[in-house]
Amino acid sequence: MLEEEIKSENTPIKRSLSIQLTYIDKLNNDKILPINGNFWNYVDVLSKKMNINKLRGFFYQTMIISDKFKIKEVTNPFDYFRRCQFVAIIHGMALISGYFPYFNSSSGLIKIGPSKDLKKNCTIIDDSTVLDKDSNVIRDSNGELLEPHRGFKLYNSMNSLQQQDILFKLDSMLKELSNILFKIKKSEYEKFDPIDVLQKIAKHCNDNKYQSALNYLSMEVHDTPYLLTQDQRNNLFDDYDSLNNLWESGFITDNHGKFRIYIMCVYFLNSIEKNKMISK
After folding, report:
1. Pairing of strands 129-131, 138-140
2. What is d(CA 218, CA 224) in angstroms, rounded to the nearest whole number?
3. Distance between CA atoms of 81 and 91, rounded to whole angstroms?
4. Cα–Cα distance between 237 and 179 in angstroms, integer?
């Protein structure tokens, strides 16, 4: 039903114009981030039309497709990547809110793929595989503290109440996302420096010991964060110039990493940081 609603509201009879997101750099220069109009419409419609039941169906269907994707039986990889990108957006927002303490140090459900041609341009449901240090063989994670499950395996390791909580927390992010997109369209927000705010997000997660959020964010700015110690992953966000170089070089790609980070920044500034200031 939801897929039919998306098609009826976003039928690409003609290509949608790109959305121009605005931000500033550390010198206060105005910058433009162009986002594909069709993808923007996809995210906008999903965030407005979904309720908990539709989200549950969308989520489970995406998980099912992930199994087919793993064995290269997906007939439309574009649809799968787009689904994962949507889940990644609300998943990241929920992680920096500290909503999944039972994830412990796991990076969660989504894997941000390593860069191809020096650009990160895909998100997938994590298959929870690891490279065995002794045998050099790729195998499933064992679920222990130093080798936590991720993605589909993580979700299936949760009890029924935790699984329900994951969906309810993701659902709570849908309204937040819809409000963010509305504010962006109406230009009802102050321009910000996304690198500066990303550093604030990382500090917020570090201060609150949201290790899963930091481990998830580390995939945005590093190809092999699993080879780093926890301290090294946490410290990836200390160097402004290093992060800015990744942003400007295209390593963090427009319709993917930059868009996820941009949405996360607006959410952090308007919800998390503002609420912290009110509570003081």
Report:
1. antiparallel
2. 9
3. 15
4. 28
Give the contacts of 52 (CB within 8 A, at least 6 positions apart).
167, 168, 171
Amino acid present at 209: K
Q: Which two tokens stand for residue 158?
A: 């949760």
DSSP H helices in 186-271: 194-207, 211-221, 230-234, 240-249, 259-267
Q: What is the reported pLDDT for 265?
A: 97
Nearest 10 degrees: Cα torsion 47, 49, 54, 57: -60
- Give this prediction's pTM: 0.91
- With tokens 């230009």, the residue in question is 187
Instruction: List the structure tokens of 176.
Output: 């937040």
Domain boundaries, the chain: 2-271
DSSP lists the bridge partners of residue 19 as 35
CB 66 within 8 A of CB 127: yes
pLDDT digits (tens, 9 = 90+) for 136-181: 888 889 888 888 999 999 999 999 999 999 999 999 999 999 999 9
Q: Helix, strand or coil for residue 227?
A: helix
Residue type, 199: Q
CB 272 within 8 A of CB 204: yes
113: closest CA among 62, 151, 149, 158?
151
Q: 21 φ, ψ to 5°?
A: -85, 140
d(CA 261, CA 263): 6
Convert the pLDDT of each residue in 182-220 to its tens digit: 999 888 889 999 999 999 999 999 999 999 999 999 999
